[in-house]
Write a structure and sequence with these properties.
Elements: H1 5-8, H2 20-41, H3 50-57, H4 60-66, H5 68-82, H6 87-98, H7 101-110, H8 115-131, H9 135-143, H10 147-151, H11 154-174, H12 178-186, H13 190-203, H14 212-228, H15 233-249, H16 253-276, H17 285-289, H18 294-299, H19 301-309, H20 314-347
Helix pairs in contact: 2-5, 3-5, 4-5, 7-8, 8-9, 9-11, 11-12, 11-13, 13-14, 13-15, 14-15, 15-16, 16-19
Length: 348
Amino acid sequence: MSAFPEVLAAALPRGSGLNLSEKVAALDFFADFIIKAQARRNSPQQTQCSAEATLVAALSVQFVTLLPTRAGIVQQAVGSCLSGQSVQMQSVQSTLRSSTVEELLTLADEHKDDSALRIAYLSRAALLSYNEKRYDLTIRILDGMTDEERIADLEFWEDLRSSAAAFLAFVRYQNGDHQGWRTVFENTPIDIRAFAQFGLVSLFTVNEIPTQAVRIEVLQSAAKFMARSEKPFSRKSAYWFGLVGQMSNLKQFSDASDVLKDIANAFNAAQKQTEEKGDRLEISRHHARSGLTAELLDVQNARLSEIIGSVNDPRSRVNINFVLLNVAVQKYQTLKRELGYLESEKLD
């Protein structure tokens, strides 16, 4: 579900940054998922599928918008699975929607022997406290979950945990608690610490002079933790390219190209492992677009060419070069408009 964070909450961070084709692929997966679940329900074993249907039903708008050819059959499968839904399940869903954070936490404690219900109550409590801007409570709830409870939807847990840390650090920074905002990151799991640091920098105004030194400090730290993170390349790629873009915005072009080199090296290593498993990995244009700027291209042109040339996958090189070409064209169009304006001023 972390592929469609808007289903969970409008304020949830879009950490995964999926593009259109990737979202369609995710919907295809969910369509196959619910159709197979319905088939099992109609088999001699009559396996229940109401839980799966509840999950997929939340994506009805996405199916109609992005994958209309399968929307009808998915709706039929969902309806079939929900036709036998128990009154208890309907009651649980109503409770999740109407309860306060404190009520949800109490319910979670009362259902320690029911793993699925406990996870549902804790996840909803964490998300609701996040939407209420009680970020310290969100972190306490998420950190209190067991490994098994986190793994139920690990990307959701990671994105919410890192985003709550970013907002909490931002609030403490604004309140002048400089030790406090640094402590927030120290207490964030190492593998997603850079995600939170990226989030903090994103909350500042780009051209805000007084915060430049702090943003540079945080970005330099984030670059180190991103390289150390054991998360898969595909998981951290969007954040990683985002760091390149943020460094470029702060005129830290040498640091930005260093991070881009880290990305290239990590991608090459990850791609080799992926190919050995018979799968494919590539750097998407969508992710590269967030990191490559006209200013970086101007200042680090030769270095960028060297780094891109070191990427082993031809298609990924094409994607990156395509983004750079677009950046160059946009810059040319901007200069052309500015020159046209200056010429008109002279004529006046």
